[in-house]
Amino acid sequence: MTIDFKRDVLAPVAHDFTAMDTFINEGITSKVALVMAVSKHVVEAGGKRMRPIMCLLAARACGLSKIEHAHHLAAIIEMLHTATLVHDDVVDESGLRRGRPTANATWNNQTAVLVGDFLIARAFDLLVNIQNYDLLKDFSTGTCEIAEGEVLQLQSQHQPDTSEETYLKIIHGKTSRLFELATEGAAILADQAEYREPLRHYAGHFGNAFQIIDDILDYTSDAETLGKNIGDDLMEGKPTLPLIAAMRLTDHDSAQYQIIRRSIATGGIADLEQVIKIVKQSGALDYCMQRAKQETALAIEALQALPETEYRQGLQSLAELALERIQ
Amino acid sequence: MTIDFKRDVLAPVAHDFTAMDTFINEGITSKVALVMAVSKHVVEAGGKRMRPIMCLLAARACGLSKIEHAHHLAAIIEMLHTATLVHDDVVDESGLRRGRPTANATWNNQTAVLVGDFLIARAFDLLVNIQNYDLLKDFSTGTCEIAEGEVLQLQSQHQPDTSEETYLKIIHGKTSRLFELATEGAAILADQAEYREPLRHYAGHFGNAFQIIDDILDYTSDAETLGKNIGDDLMEGKPTLPLIAAMRLTDHDSAQYQIIRRSIATGGIADLEQVIKIVKQSGALDYCMQRAKQETALAIEALQALPETEYRQGLQSLAELALERIQ
């Protein structure tokens, strides 16, 4: 039986999800009309709300009694995620996200930068209300690391010598860290110290798998399924795992090797078709898929430290579902 | 005797200032080379460090015993200030600040947006370490209001009907609010609840005067003294107090009135010379100077609730010194 997002992931926390959604809408308040308009626009453009759902499942899996705290935390996670997307779209000069015009395209870069700042500040403002220092410390350190991951990605752009180790640092910061905050934060709220590490590991490995899959899809998907164009990463000279693996698996004296290096160094998609061919024929894509499966297996393994509940099963289903995008 | 910044403002907290400066440099740590390089660049480009000095004076004026907390708070204030400048320079597409190339000009917009985010996160990270909920709440709410003030300014660009009331809201958010955090934060740290309001009022009125003076200088200074070009605000169609007052003081059927309205609506400095003439002849500049003096008087009046010390005198001197820029 294939996994169904609504039935296998969302259903166990459907009521919590509704409460969280209400809290997001109530939490974004401002006397400044433009702040409201842009915030609503970007929060409503949200996708499946995977991060808050993960937070709610983790909170229930930990047996959190003050469940309204989890609703707040999940909403805060989604606001932070939205803020990073708004700034990412400025950074990447993106006009569309999930088929909708971005904030920078609808308004302008200025508005997008400042409303992103507002959402970060508002997320912290709501977090302070929960009055939990461990949680605050985790989040303040975590948001530093997220920004650092994003800058490391910029620093590595057009650098063909970027190692797999650096790639892993980048994706940990830009993607996995927020998933970690979502689940470890739930364990902190539940005051279940022994579940902090397993839940962090689950989310970290899940995030790694999720990003590796995303980077695979940049060389294999069509625009319809992904909502982004094939070759976007190559366009920007991003040394993602498919390219790093392709260089390792290709004879360094070959023309193929030079094509990959040059594409990263210069950016642009002039050689896209050739790069796709090399990535596939060298075995790089197979390697990436294997790595995504490994990370997913590690995520699920980490979950076993938690009691067996429908919520733990929901977290497992979410990890398995993410893998289906490349199968 | 004229007021001297070093002798009358800085001297009473000179040792604290050194400790604060060390803490800023130690506080900005990152394993990502680009984060370090940009952060150092922008923090070193700082000016007189008016905000942290104000924080240190306020802390001493309140008799704070754990003075190292004030060093940390002052450093956090400066980091937040720097973060907003970095994002402002992206928003305004500025190439120079205080005669030095901006982060967006030296690197690019992407780097500036992300390092600004890092500095905001790091400031909160250091703030969490102080473990004071009242302080955290004040700062998290305050940073929301700062972002809102900046967005309100954007929203009011090219709007000739912007009222003086809206102008005051803008400058409270974009300028005065951080001064308030610097001084009220010191009272919170010192656990002197009765000094919170006087110190917030001092800083709020000081900030208003400071920004009104800045807006006056945009129509009267030369580039050398200010480090920014005359007419910058007009260029961007910003309805600042000199223009708002000029419209109120000018016959609404006159050509002069239309010139001001059109200049705000379209932006640009085609009519700069005429606008300057109208702003001066209408009495608008006189009105602005009078308002700056009023705000300064209110700032100093608020200080009287504090015990008479060299630190309180330092805060008063700072307010008087700010006025000298237009005298």
TrEMBL record, chains A, B:
Fetch the SUPFAM superfamilies from UniProt: Terpenoid synthases (SSF48576)
User: What does this protein need as cofactor?
Assistant: Mg(2+)
Transferase as UniProt keyword: yes
Q: Does the keyword Transferase apply?
A: yes
Cite the GO molecular-function annotations of the record: metal ion binding; prenyltransferase activity
Q: Which UniProt keywords apply?
A: Magnesium, Metal-binding, Transferase
InterPro entries with a match to the protein in the record? Isoprenoid_synthase_dom_sf (IPR008949), Polyprenyl_synt (IPR000092), Polyprenyl_synt_CS (IPR033749)
Q: Name one GO biological process term.
A: isoprenoid biosynthetic process
**Family that this chain belongs to:** Belongs to the FPP/GGPP synthase family.
Q: What is this protein called?
A: Geranylgeranyl diphosphate synthase
**What species does this protein belong to?**
Acinetobacter qingfengensis
Q: What is the lineage of its organism?
A: Bacteria, Pseudomonadati, Pseudomonadota, Gammaproteobacteria, Moraxellales
